[in-house]
Structure formats: structure tokens, C-alpha cells
Amino acid sequence: MGCTERKIRGWKSARVGGVLKAMRGGFALFLLAVPICVTSNPGQAPQYPVLLASRTPPASVKMPSLSCAQLPMLEKWSLEHHVVGMDSTLSRSFTDELSRRVLETLDPHRVLFTQDDLSSLSKLAPAAWEEVLKQKSCKQFAAWVDARLASAKERLYDHLGKQEFDAKKISRTIVDSSETKFKNYKTTAASLTELKERWARLYDEILKSAYPKLLESYSHNLEAYVTDSIQQILEHKMPSGDMLAKAMLRSVDEYSNFLSSEEYADFYDDLAGGTSGIGIKIRKTPKGLLIEKVLDDSPAQKSKKIIPGDQVLAVDGKRVAKLPLNETKDLLKGKPGAGVSLLLERTEKTHNLQFTIRLKRQRFNFDEGKVEVSERTTPEGTILVATVPSFYGRGSDPGAEDDHSVSEDLERELKKRLKKKTPKAIVMDLRDNPGGYLEEAVDMAGLFIGNKTVAGVMERNSRRVFKNEYQAPLFEGPLVVLLDSGSASAAEVFAGAMKDHQRAVLIGSPTTYGKGTVQRLYHVENELPLMDLSGQLLTGVIKLTTSVFYSPLGHSPANGGVRTHVTLLPESLDGEHPKHKSLAAIDFDVNPFLSEPEVERLKNTEKERQPLLETLRAQSRSRIGTEKELSERQALDEAISLAGSWSTLLQRSSVAARAE
What we know:
This protein is an alpha+beta fold. It contains 17 helices and 21 strands. The protein has helices spanning 71-81, 92-106, 115-135, 139-160, 192-208, 212-217, 222-233, 240-252, 261-272, 299-303, 325-332, 406-420, 438-449, 490-500, 524-527, 596-624, 632-659; strands at residues 14-16, 50-51, 257-259, 274-277, 280-284, 289-294, 311-315, 318-319, 339-347, 352-360, 362-365, 372-378, 381-387, 425-429, 453-458, 463-467, 479-483, 505-508, 517-523, 541-550, 566-567. The longest helix is centred in the last third of the chain and has 29 residues, at 596-624.
């Protein structure tokens, strides 16, 4: 699952080992939660790019961060390998963008700074960035960051100290805070007044997402709870080198990024759909870590000694109450087979019981992120619904046998059900799917189109065609793909192939997200032999845009997304995703990756199916009526109804064709 910055649907809790990461931005309370995406930025591009590179396991030990002295070499290498060649990053337009990206890195939730702060950094940026490149020093940037960050936090804490918190605002119905909706800000606050309005909303959202057992650990002191929550949100310990590496790469184009070795470890887990650890979902508390959930098939679950509500007080003898959540998470994760000791506390009716257990870490998969296949009975017959959360997998690393593969998981589930009976149709639910491995999108497409072209990829000086290895499709019946504006990247590869080959009806939002670029992961130690002052090799991962992907007929999602046949959902609330200026020179419509006879055949099929699609649209409008916006459940119900209708229309059309 490569990394996208997706619109967040809620704040998630930490999954140890392995961290769920929020996609496409939003708040991420470390006290309450850990963000689903290590590289997320609110309102920005999807976190999971289509990845072509094989995965390399992260280093098992913490490695030094980048220093400012290494940034010029990183800049030179990145510009040379980017899909659009650049000579320099010293232009005013680049440093303006750099200012914005620095601020995003410092304040990803956009609750600290105003436009005046951005303006002051923009004035400083040209000279400060030139100092980085020519003098290999971050002094100007570091001085501004330290001063403005301290001032901004003091401003917020002063406001926070004057608030009175109302217990009536606490929701009594929330079971899982990941379902809570939170405001996602696309831009920096225009004024201090607007910033204060954001703070007030943030306080309310923190209270509304309050977890009962977590509040108990604060003795229901709401002020302490909100204050601690805010402090966790504002935690910032990123070294200047890492911060500027991120900002520089994001300024080259919004999908490129730099991941520290610790961030890559989490990123790697999401790529694989699993991790090595003990398997608990945690929340930070004044005492330590509250265990909210014990994951299935994990060491914690197998021990039968840990239950939700227990608190972790210490890990291997180290007290965790005052440690940041990320540091605690690193203590809990580790190599498979390695032991870890936990000091736990359990609240009994009359007293608190403390006890110690020892577990062995193991590799296990995240079942909550897997493909799910269910059956729905309709008047037309059985409809299968396959929910695909992301295109997780092994990439081009077939040796990662313990890891999930979305195409294999789907194939296994479909075969199991197809043995019993053939459904009338299948609905593929790709809503909010941020993408992932290109290889997985290609393999999944093969389940429905066999050995045909799925995508084309254009690099600087080459053109590649991707086909799957399936000689025959697993399922050839009616297919419906449900999409929304959060369907991105590899999800758009799959949707584009289904549409171009006239294999499926696409329904949902008018268009998908609109991401058409490919990123590769480059390990710093392999590409840039950087060392710190002690002679130790530095690590980290460069995520760089190296190519553009296209549908079989030569259309890139970057040119407006993949358009659906039947519209159920409104346009994205974020509006149309703008093309990044650094990619403006790219042609997002090219010649088809298919032969001329294939193109002609597909055009004829498309023409023949237009009357059927018009009938389908009319039927859908009749069912939906005057609804302006459907809930997620309503949209899925309509997709299922539409799949049944499509099956009937195709059957009637086939009968009519034979009669002629």
C-alpha cells in the first residue's frame, strides 16, 4: 500500500505493532490516536501511490536523521531522477511552495499558524534555502521554526487555559472513535479570529470523541483530558534535516516525500498488511497506555492474559507514562521471536491489580484491512459484494510469504463462493480506497479480464505495458465498480482498465480522485552513501514521482480522474484536485496501449452499450428520487440494485441479439 494523503474519516488508535495511518489528512490525536498515514497532510494528495519498487525491510535499529549538510546532495539526486527534470530549486516560486510545505510539516492539522506566519516564512525562505544549499546550514530555518512554534503553542495554550468544558458535550454513543467525523482544514487560517474558531471546534471534537475508559483514567477531569490531547497533537520533535527533506520533496511535487527510518517501518507494515509485534490497539493515558482492543491471531490474544481495559505501565522495565506514543510503540514492536515484558494494571471492583507478563513478538496480519466478500439476496438473484480497502501486498517481493496480497485474498474468497453457486453479478466497492501496489491492481484486474492490458506507464525515456498473468478470467458475469472521490491511485488503475475494456459499469461520484503518477521507494543508503559525523551510514527512504500511469486507451486519471457511468454521489467536497505545477509539462492523454483492432472493437462495444447504460441511469434515478446525497449504506444498496438491473439488461440484450 504505498502512501497517499487521503481525506480522513476519523481518528484512529495505534495498532501495535504496526500503526494505522490516516489517509489524506485530518487530525491525529497521539493521545487518542495515531494517524493512519505517516506522510499525511490535510487536504493533500493520496497517500498510497502506485508503487513499482520492491520493498526492503526497514532497519531493526533506530538510525541517525539527515543533517542539513546532506540536503544539497539529496536535492541534486531527486531532481535528476524525478519524472520531470529540474535544474535547481532556487526559484522564488519554489521557495514560496517550500514555505507552505514547511508550515504543513510543522502544523499538519492547521491549528497553529495564520497566513501572517506563512508570509513571514515566505520572506525568509529564499535566503534561508540558499543558505541550506550553498552553506549546508539550516540555522535560519531552525531559528524561525523554534521561535514561531514556541510562540504559536503559547498562544493556543493561553486560549485553552481560559476555557470551561461542558460534560454535556461528551457523546455517550461513541464506541469506536475511528467512526467520528472531524473537520479537515484545507488552508491556513486567514486570521487569529479564524484560528480561535478552529480551536473551539477542536475542543468540542475532542470531547465528543471521548472514550469512557480513557476519561476514567483522567478521573473525568475534562480540562486535563483536553489539555493533554492538545499537547499530543502539537508534539513536534522532527530534526531540521528531516523536516526540510520532506518540505523540499513535497515542493518538487506533492506525491514525493522523505520518510525517516522510523516512518518507513510503519509505512512498510501498511504496504504488507501486517507487522511484527504483540497485537494491541492502544490509547495514551496519564498512567501509560490503555489497551482498547486485542487483535486476533496476535501474541496478546493467544496469551489469554490481556483484555481490553488493561493499562500498560512499563515495557521491558521502562515506564511509559511520560513517553510519546511513537516511542512506546517502538518499544512494543520488534523482530519475530524476540521477547518483551509488560507491566500491566487491571481495574477490579475493589482494587487495581498489577501483574507482569512476557510475550514473544510474531508476524501477524491486519485482518481489519483485508478484502471482505459478502452475499446479498436480490429479486434478480445473489449479488456478491467485495469490499477492497486498499491494494496491499508484496509488490515485487514474492519472498514475503507471510504478508497479505489483496489479489490473492480476493481470488481465494471468490473461488470459495463460486464453487457453491454463480452469482448474478459482483459489486466491487472501492470507495475511499487510496491505492497501493500497481502489481496488485494488475493482478486483480486479471480476475475479470484475463490476460489483457491493464495499464501503461510512461517514464522519461520509456513506455511500459502491464498485463496480468491470468490466461482466463475467474468471473465473466456482470460487474459493477463502486467509486467515490477518495478512490485513488491503484484503485484508478483497476477502474480505468474495467472501463476501457467495457468490462464493468462504474458508479458513484462523478469522478475518482485523479492521481495519475507513480512513485518509487529509494533507500538512501543504496542511492546516496551519506554518513553522519561518527561514520555511521544514514538511512531513510525517498519516495519520488518517477512516471505517469495511463488506462489501456491512454487516459491518465491525473486529467480529471476516472469518470463513472452512473452518478450516485456528489462531487468531492474538496473540489477538483489541481494539477501540480511541476507536472504541467506532462501529457496526460497519449496513444492507446492497445492494437488498432482492439481499440476499434472496444469503441463499437461502447456504442452498443450506450442505450443499456441510459436505461440503467433512468432506473437508478427512479430509485434514488430527489435524494441530493446518499449515505454510504444507501450508495451500496443502490450499487447492488443497479448490479441486478445490469445483469437483467445484459441478459435481455444477449437474447435479443441471438434472435436477430
